[in-house]
Write a structure and sequence with these properties.
single chain, FAD/NAD(P)-binding domain, Enolase-like, domain 1, 3 domains, 5-stranded parallel beta sheet, 14 helices, 24 strands, binds flavin-adenine dinucleotide, FAD/NAD-bd_sf, flavoprotein, FAD
Length: 456
């Protein structure tokens, strides 16, 4: 039996937990960081980072296929999955080592093992009792399945999809949200035949409808199949493959089925309810300052209802650390959090969709402008099509920016500033954008919405 006391105890060292620990230690608090797996959590080891490595490999495959268009003689001989794995693991290992070094350098005490909350100020890890003046819960999330659908064998989650040592010839993907379309995009670029099954009427269904429709056109053009507005009714598998039967009676046959139907909070059996934390369907309920119903006990990241994104968890971790250090940080508004769907094409958005803005302000109180990337020199050079849609309140600020096209994720920073700072298009329109960049397209969209369209 041993006992350790800290100013702050953090349970879970993913994006939310480690960010809280780093910032708190920087602000002079002693920190105990408890992790049962690897510091860095989902994002670093089985989420954001390794999937983007796969997408980069996919982009190179596509560029090689298209190389003649750019006057380069090259041909795609195939995908060497061992090489892809070595590249992916190399990136993850290097970032992991960097994070471990940073945690050590900041004087944070890492406690290895699975923790359980036994009081608002205590976490038990095996025979170690870890107490903190404050505790942050940051235990993250897991890949959900659906009732009647068991994960195993040829029915896999994103974690197993990352680890595949072959490129599937034919793959079915249940769920047309971010994770589903990301893997679909990679596999298609590597030569697989891909079919996505989505219960809602659109792929990337949380995006502005006009963007979802463009996305569907782009995926269709790439030869990715999808079945929208239909649910699976059963799945059978054998040594050869898997057969997914849909509610409408259709069947989809494939070598593998990726289940990408969202992520649930990893909170079961960790003592939260027993200690009296208010929960809702497994999520931890907090106030806007991320404190639970128990004073001094906080929660961050995917276990808090809202967008399950690494940068949200990260910012929430920083927020709570600053709160505890008495810095009175600014409350995080989920609506201003940028979202990027990494695929070919990319989708990036911040703020309200046109439909949500119409609900909030009244349809006659908003206007929107769609800028076609065909008018942007750099987009033409890199061979992408797409668009940038701005939504504004009449004679008021820009409340939403929605983009689709290659690399538009890199443009989200400026869009986020405009939306978060409630900028009027007239404020942003005079800013000069470097030529030729894709950023100029955003500049031109602001100009147009300010009533000064340059090329329209
Ligand atoms: P996690 O990162 O899940 O960390 C929780 C940590 O807590 C884990 O390390 C876990 O081992 C530990 N833990 C759990 N229970 C205990 C316990 N009892 N004791 C000790 N330790 C415990 N987000 C983006 O913003 N961009 C992306 O591109 C992106 N891509 C993604 C791709 C995929 C395939 C997936 C699955 C996710 C992706 N995400 C992305 C989401 C992102 O990974 C999560 O939002 C983020 O990791 C959440 O951070 P977190 O700190 O809440 O939880």
């Amino acid at each position: 039996m041993s006992e350790q006391n800290f100013d702050l105890v953090v349970l879970g060292a993913g994006s939310g937990g480690y960010a809280a620990a780093l910032r708190a230690s920087q602000l002079g608090l002693s920190v105990g960081l408890i992790e049962k797996g690897k510091v860095g959590g989902t994002c670093l080891h089985v989420g954001c980072i390794p999937t983007k490595a796969l997408l980069h490999s996919a982009e190179i495959a596509d560029a090689t296929r298209d190389s003649a268009k750019y006057g380069v003689t090259a041909s795609l001989e195939g995908i060497n999955i061992e090489g892809v794995t070595a590249y992916r693991e190399g990136i993850v290992t290097s970032k992991y080592k960097g994070l471990q070094g940073l945690i050590k350098a900041r004087g944070i005490t890492t406690i290895e093992g699975a923790g359980r909350l036994t009081s608002p100020t205590t976490v038990q890890v095996g025979d170690q009792t870890i107490t903190g003046k404050n505790v942050i819960l940051a235990t993250g999330s897991y890949s959900r399945s659906l009732p009647g659908l068991e994960i195993g064998g040829r029915v896999i989650t994103s974690e197993q999809a990352l680890e595949l040592d072959f490129v599937p010839k034919k793959v079915a993907v249940l769920g047309g949200g971010v994770i589903g379309v990301e893997f679909s995009s990679v596999w298609k670029s590597w030569g697989s035949d891909v079919t996505i099954i989505e219960a809602l009427p659109h792929l990337v269904p949380n995006e502005d409808e006009s963007i979802s429709k463009q996305f569907e056109r782009a995926f269709r053009k790439r030869g990715i199949n999808f079945k929208l507005g239909t649910r699976f009714s059963s799945v059978t598998q054998n040594d050869e493959g898997v057969v997914v039967t849909l509610e409408n009676g259709e069947t989809v046959e494939a070598e593998l089925l990726l289940v990408a139907v969202g992520r649930g909070p990893s909170t079961a059996g960790l003592g939260f309810e027993e200690v009296g934390v208010t929960m809702d369907r497994g999520f931890v309920i907090t106030n806007e300052r991320l404190e639970t119903n128990i004073p001094g006990l906080y929660a961050v990241g995917d276990i808090v209802p809202g967008l399950q994104l690494a940068h949200r968890g990260f910012q929430q971790g920083i927020f709570v650390a600053e709160e505890l250090a008495g810095l009175n940080p600014v409350i995080i508004e989920d609506v201003n959090i940028p979202k990027v769907t990494y695929s070919d094409p990319e989708v990036a958005s911040v703020g309200l969709t046109e439909a949500r803005a119409a609900e909030k302000y009244g349809a006659d109180q908003i206007s929107s402008y769609d800028y076609n990337l065909a008018g942007n020199g750099k987009s033409h050079i890199i061979g992408t099509s797409g668009s940038i849609k701005l939504v504004r309140v009449k004679d008021g600020p820009v409340v939403g920016v929605h983009m689709i096209g290659a690399r538009v994720g890199e443009l989200i920073g400026e869009a986020q500033l405009a939306v978060s700072w409630e900028a009027y298009p007239e404020d942003v329109a005079p800013l000069i954008h470097a030529h030729p960049t894709q950023n100029e397209a955003l500049g031109e969209a602001f100009l147009a919405l300010a009533g000064k369209p340059l090329h329209a």
